[in-house]
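Methods — Computational structure assignment.
A single polypeptide chain was analysed. Its primary sequence is given first, followed by the predicted tertiary structure written as structure tokens.
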Amino acid sequence: MGDLKAVDEMNFEAEVLRATLPVLVDFWAEWCPPCKKLGPTLDKIAPTLDGRLRIVKVNVQEAAALATQYGVMNIPTMIIFKNGAEVARLVGNRAESKLIQDIESYL
């Protein structure tokens, strides 16, 4: 999973909803091949977006209530939160350049 912070029901509000920066939440699972491909991409782009966006991960098997609460039907699903509200939803794996392009407009 790299160095990205894992969040769950216990710290989601503090880490995501009350964050001062926009937060990209990666909903993933260990058994999901596209999730495993996306993980290293997120690890790689996180430092380039530091100070403008935080990236955290939610394991849908360990935090199923969060996946249900946010209507995550397919994984990987990335939801960008800004000021505690969902502003974007990206479903599926993406190449690094496409992912950065998709994120940039929400920063």
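Note: The helical segments are 12-17, 33-49, 64-69, 96-104.
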